[in-house]
């Protein structure tokens, strides 16, 4: 596929979704990443506290 064909396919895919679906997908991905970061930070804090208790 050349560059123009790829751009046409991407444009067709983007236009087939409503804007709300795209925003919802991005938001859900962001929530997942946020939950992962919070769990990672809590795990690091618990690990640091356990190191000082020894």
From TrEMBL:
Keywords: Membrane, Transmembrane, Transmembrane helix
Ranges that cross the membrane: 30-49
Name of the protein in its database record: Phosphatidate cytidylyltransferase
Lineage start: Bacteria, Pseudomonadati, Bacteroidota, Flavobacteriia, Flavobacteriales
């Amino acid at each position: 596929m050349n560059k123009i064909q790829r751009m046409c396919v991407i444009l067709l895919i983007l236009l087939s979704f409503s804007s709300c679906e795209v925003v919802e997908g991005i938001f859900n991905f962001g929530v997942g990443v946020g939950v992962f970061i919070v769990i990672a930070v809590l795990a690091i804090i618990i690990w640091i506290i356990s190191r000082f208790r020894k």
